[in-house]
């Protein structure tokens, strides 16, 4: 009895490990369903259209290729001649320019030096422009301040107020002038 149970267990294990027919049948069924049912034979139609296109091409193009075959050698020889002439022209042009590698390096250095000089000059111009903007801003502020002082003096003199010895209006008039300037801005 024990041997029968062992043989039965070994048979079951063997079936589970090595007998994959149900799994394979399910996979085949899913594969067939995917390509036939879901896609509605669209792959088959695409393949059929490709086959018909290839057969048409064979019928048309094979005749054309056969008729062109004698001309291929002449076309090939003409292409070789044109390539040779083009290479000769390029060689002559290279000789005419006469730029050797050392001269090319020298020209490259000159271009690089010129570029660096332009960058330096640009930086200098920007620095001068910045300082000029600062100077003009300061000059504008000074002009505004002097106009404010003149308004204050004219307001103070028109009101009949006296100026102090240094030429500036009294504190109360100066404060009023500043209020007026704040309102104008």
UniProtKB/TrEMBL annotation:
Residues 158-185 are annotated as: Disordered. Pfam families: Muted. Belongs to the BLOC1S5 family. GO terms for cellular component: BLOC-1 complex; transport vesicle. Residues 175-185 have a biased composition (Basic and acidic residues). The lineage of its organism: Eukaryota, Metazoa, Porifera, Demospongiae, Heteroscleromorpha. InterPro entries: Bloc1s5. Residues 158-172 have a biased composition (Low complexity). It comes from the Eukaryota. This is Biogenesis of lysosome-related organelles complex 1 subunit 5.
């Amino acid at each position: 009895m024990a041997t029968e149970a062992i043989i039965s267990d070994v048979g079951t294990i063997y079936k589970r490990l090595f007998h994959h027919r149900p799994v394979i049948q399910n996979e085949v069924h899913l594969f067939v369903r995917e390509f036939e049912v879901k896609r509605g034979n669209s792959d088959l139609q695409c393949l059929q259209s490709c086959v018909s296109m290839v057969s048409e091409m064979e019928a048309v193009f094979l005749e054309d290729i056969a008729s062109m075959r004698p001309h291929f050698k002449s076309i090939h020889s003409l292409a070789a001649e044109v390539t040779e002439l083009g290479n000769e022209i390029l060689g002559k042009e290279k000789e005419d320019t006469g730029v050797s590698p050392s001269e090319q390096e020298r020209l490259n250095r000159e271009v690089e030096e010129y570029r660096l000089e332009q960058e330096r000059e640009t930086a200098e111009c920007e620095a001068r422009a910045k300082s000029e903007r600062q100077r003009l801003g300061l000059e504008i502020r000074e002009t505004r301040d002097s106009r404010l002082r003149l308004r204050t003096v004219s307001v103070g003199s028109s009101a009949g107020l006296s100026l102090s010895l240094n030429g500036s209006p009294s504190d109360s008039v100066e404060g009023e002038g500043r209020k007026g300037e704040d309102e104008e801005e």
